Amino acid sequence: MINSDEALIQTRHKIIEETCRLEWKGQLDAEHKEELVYKIIPGPKPEIGRCCVYKEREIVRHRVRLACAENLLDNPASDNEVQVIKPACDECPLSTYTVTDNCRLCLGKACLSSCHFGAISIGEFRSHIDSKKCKECGMCAQNCPYGAIVHLVRPCKRACPVDAITYDEYGFCVIDEEKCIDCGRCIHSCPFGAISAKSYLVDIIHAIREGKEVIAMCAPATEGQFGEKIGMPSIRHALKKLGFADMVEVGLGGDMTAAYEALEWSEARKEGKKMTTSCCPAFINLLKKHFPQQYAENMSTTVSPMCAVSRYLKTTHPGCVTVFIGPCVAKKSEAADKSVPDNADYVMTYGELSTLLRSRDVELEPVEEEYQEASIWGKRFATSGGVANAVLECMQERGEDIEDIKLLRCAGGEECKKALMLLKRGRLPEDFIEGMACPGGCVGGPSRHKTELELKRSRETLLKKADGRKVLENLKNYPMDSFSMHRDGHMESTEV
């Protein structure tokens, strides 16, 4: 991914790569883990810009734990996928309101008179704000005629769409797990790499080494992530070199989900009921934690494409281990939710895929081979509007008139929150909400591998190669009556 945290990502992935190499060798024990810490930070000087090697080594130890999908020692009971590495979180300013050099020490002193908490004093060259007294009301900044007082919000807090980030008495970042939707936006916003997510590569490698049938499932957002010459066949071949038994594109699951959501939409339309989609796990977490009534009353009961393909594979390959690969951190929380049976066993991001390939010295190479299991509608699930378009396509394929359907396509946390607030207050004019927590849809996920422009160009080149099969026609080739498409796992008799 191209971002301001590129150097941090390289360090993070290097640690995960070396951890994976140890697991491939069967040497991931306490002794080798500590040797790895000294291999990454040999000393005597700091390697990654911290004050000393001792602090850097402690940060690496924390990262090794996350690379092994373990909770950090200062938060052992956490259920969150996203966690804070405290030794790395200590460089951001504690004061959110601060006085800049623009202060002219004016005679009016509007800042002083507007503060009701005694937090502002007049210094020799400019005003001063006492962070211990400041209540962050913002009146001083609002009333300063020179705009000399600015509001400095920590990058992690600014990036969080649900205000799940606060700070403890020492200034360390704290994630409120009751609010966090695991979207991962804070991970790449932190300039010190203090926020990270658990990685399940070690568990995946362990399953491969044990001889289990491990099958990869690649998200619809995959095409274009690695350039216009690396399509699904290339990734499939590389994964087989790693030891995966096979790979299936989750665009097929997009077809499955669209077909069953179309049935739900048709029924809701008859009843005059509004409905939201069920594909984006961060959006589902937003519903579940912040709009519980709408989660219970308005969310589609159809499973996500990831879960649909996992259930299909577990039906046709009993005992297999399913691994989802995509740009999404929140998918890890979906896989961890055992209330939805037979979902993916593990999730890895594109960055982790690249790391896993490097750990076995495998490269992605162009492959001249035809491979397509999804319709173009399923393949386009990853972009904003793609889910709704696929559902409407299924309704049309069944002969329904969709002219009067009103859709609201939301991409990004703020848009989703606004739509759900309108739904909660009964003021939503549209019939259906397509919710995606990332700007642009899944292709804009926190682990995307290219800039938006690069990705769009490469993606369109690859998608043009897809044939024009219809969604319902495509699903006739799969045993849709042998597994459930409902979230709770109960079997339904409805035909797609």
Automatic annotation (TrEMBL):
Claim: Iron is one of the keywords in the record: yes
Domain (4Fe-4S ferredoxin-type): residue spans on this chain: 125-155, 171-200
Group of enzyme by EC: oxidoreductase
Pfam families xrefs: Fe_hyd_lg_C (PF02906), Fer4 (PF00037), LdpA_Fe-S-bd (PF25160)
Keyword annotations of the record: Iron, Iron-sulfur, Metal-binding, Oxidoreductase
EC number from the UniProt entry: 1.12.7.2
Gene Ontology molecular function terms on file: ferredoxin hydrogenase activity; iron-sulfur cluster binding; metal ion binding
Protein name: Ferredoxin hydrogenase large subunit
Organism, as annotated: Moryella indoligenes
Upper taxonomic lineage: Bacteria, Bacillati, Bacillota, Clostridia, Lachnospirales
